[in-house]
Specification:
By secondary structure, the protein is of the alpha/beta class. The protein is built from 8 helices and 11 strands. Helix 4 crosses helix 5 and helix 5 runs parallel beside helix 6.
Length: about 260
């Protein structure tokens, strides 16, 4: 099924933000459809993380518009973003290492019994249900998450996001510091999320990773979008050309940051 036959989950239009007079993001536009992964690529300082922090509510944009399901969204802080179903999974994962998967799933939103004590059994039951759908091979419910593998920790972080109704996931370097087997496991998680209609912005420095997981790629350079296009219409060399030279290939739609040939 072609994700783009539906309305976009997210549409960011002409987003700009400056720090100390320097434009970190300059008129950037990008959208995301249900069940789609859009990979955001670019050098450090290209503006990709800054753009996504505007979507997640960590930064407040100077100008531009954000639409969620076709309606203009007011996102001034992370709480606003969560209200729109936008969740961010950072590279650090922000898990509480000393407690188990269920406790992490409900961190700050714990279920209580009528007697005012933690309802551990209800939280574990729900954790097993969510994890069973997302990662059926996950079995280590009783151990502190610090003892889990990197791929398993990603599962817990993703489960926490989708359990509280995230429809848009921002994944920041999800396979950084993971081995090949764990990277493959994260790939399976991403496929499951796509099948559930969740849209994913994938920020990565690893071009191979993005080619494996993304449907479309957006490249940024000097705060501007160079171009956006389907993975199937571009080669890795062409994407490298976008990252390094700002040269938009025929398979991509050029943005304001594209270098025009004389």
């Amino acid at each position: 099924m072609d994700a783009q036959t539906k309305a976009p989950l997210i549409e960011m239009k002409d987003i700009s933000i400056a720090f100390g007079g320097v434009k970190a993001v300059d008129r950037a536009s990008v959208n995301l459809f249900p069940g789609e992964v859009v990979g955001l690529l670019g050098h450090n300082g290209a503006g990709k993380s800054c753009l996504i922090k505007i979507l997640s509510g960590a930064y407040k944009r100077d100008s531009g518009q954000i639409f969620v399901n076709g309606e203009e969204a007011q996102i001034a802080n992370p709480r606003d973003a969560k209200r729109y179903g936008i969740e961010t999974i950072y590279q650090t994962l922000a898990l509480a290492d000393n407690v188990d998967a269920a406790s992490n799933l409900y961190l700050g939103r714990e279920l209580m019994t009528p007697w005012g004590t933690l309802d551990d059994s209800a939280m574990e039951h729900e954790a097993r249900r969510v994890m069973g759908r997302l990662n059926p091979n996950f079995r280590r419910f009783k151990v502190p998450v610090i003892s889990l593998s990197g791929g398993q920790r990603q599962s817990v972080a993703i489960a926490r996001a989708i359990h509280f109704n995230a429809r848009i996931l921002i994944m920041d370097e999800p396979t950084a510091a993971l081995g090949p087997a764990e990277t493959a496991q994260v790939g399976e998680l991403v496929k499951q999320l796509k099948a559930d209609g969740i849209g994913i912005f994938l920020i990565s420095h690893d071009i191979h990773d993005v080619f494996d997981l993304a449907d479309r790629i957006a490249v940024m350079k000097n705060g501007q979008v160079v171009g956006i296009g389907p993975v199937s219409a571009m080669t890795k060399d062409e994407v490298l050309g976008m990252i390094i030279l700002g040269k938009c290939p025929p398979g991509a739609t050029p943005g304001p940051g594209a270098v025009t040939s004389n």
